Amino acid sequence: MSQMPIFKRENISSGTPWEPLAGYSRAVHVGPFVYVSGTTATDGEGKIIGLGDPEAQAFKTLQNIESALKKVGAQLTDVVRTRIYITNIENADVICRVHGRFFRDIRPACTLVVVKGLIVPEMLVEIECDAVIHSGQ
Question: Among the four residues 24, 105, 119, 129, which has the most C-beta atoms within 10 Å?
């Protein structure tokens, strides 16, 4: 009888002040799986990038996700699912087009949800993703 592999857990931090305050990690890497938390358009100090601009916020958010993935040796091509949370349905088209620029050929499963608000009112979009690091198979 074969045993299930034991996977080491690696918590990844982006260094923002929210992570220790709220008790979460930017990403968690377990075995071949990477789970990236809801990510917004913030810089390393937690300052919002692209105030009032959903396109700029979506772009920065996806750059932040890409950075988190790279910290564990993953890349956008490993992403199998994204979830997009937006605060205004009128921003859906522009945000989805930015998502398409990053994932056009990758085409992960994706969900788009309109929410009443995010943790900071100036945030227009939050995106999370799941990835599976492929071993070349």
Answer: 129
Q: Categorize the per-residue pLDDT at 1 as very low, low, confident or very high, splitting at 50, 70 and 90.
A: low
Q: How far apart are CA 134 and CA 84, in angstroms?
A: 24
Thinking of the domain 9-132, which architecture would CATH place it in?
Answer: 2-Layer Sandwich (3.30)
pTM of this prediction exceeds 0.70? yes
Phi, psi of 112 (to 5 degrees): -120, 125
End-to-end CA distance of the chain: 25
Residues 6 or more apart in contact with residue 62 via CB below 8 angstroms: 98, 99, 102, 127
Sorted by where each begins, the domain ranges of the chain are 9-132
